[in-house]
Target: DUF1963 domain-containing protein
Amino acid sequence: MRFDDSGEMLRVCVERLGEKAGRQLVAMARRGFLLDRPTAAAPATGRCRLGGPALLEPGTAWPEAGGLPLSLHAVLDTDALAPWLGDELPTRPGLLNFFYLDPDVPYEVYKDLDLFDPEACRVIPADPARAVETPAPEPARSYPATPVHAAPVTMLPDCWDLEEGDLDYDSDEHWGVPSLVLNTMDGLDANTAGHHCAFGWPDTSYASPVTGRDADGPAIHLLQLAEDAELGWGWGDAGTMYFTIPAKAFLAGDYSQARADMRCC
Model:
């Protein structure tokens, strides 16, 4: 759920959920971005883009899984995003390169690889002052370099990324926190579906959480990639790709622990 104004977000949540639960939900808000094609009024944000060559420091090995090179899907310029994220970006990783196993080879070549294995994705930081354009080795798939405008928004967790104990509710009226949010937030639920997004909360309209939790709390959402006909990628039937990282690893700037999660109908 996204809002352009924090005051409006609080008003809507309190109005629909009640004073206590509404404020509890607002306390979980995170800052993020909608990633769209640039326009004259909304130019490209730093070096953020979809597709194109990777931006890696010299000597950085191209990531592989099972001997096959991963494909570069996006680059986020966190220096350009930092002013909006503020304390929600605890380290300054510079450029973040997002890779996933998406080889341009026959299915028989990679059919035995586990697309859900942690090695199937990689998020690699790079110093912007040292990073150079690095083309993908074959047979990794290359997508057209597409700059994006990162529009700042404030996001609330989707109902499926909430857990019991996050919000107070009447158990006689609702079967759980998802029921509370689905029935009261109505059209404001899951309204980043079909969008590319960075940070904030993901759209998790597949009835299961994307962020997950450990002792340090919900994982941090890094990137949501929707189907994109212009770029030529898709994730199954109405599918979405998510990149997340455990909260403790994010705090330490350890992007080796980032994970990808592909969902489709």
User: Anything to note?
Assistant: The chain has one domain: 2-263. The CA atoms of residues 15 and 171 lie 19 Å apart. Helices lie at 6-17, 19-26, 78-85, 107-110, 177-185, 247-252.
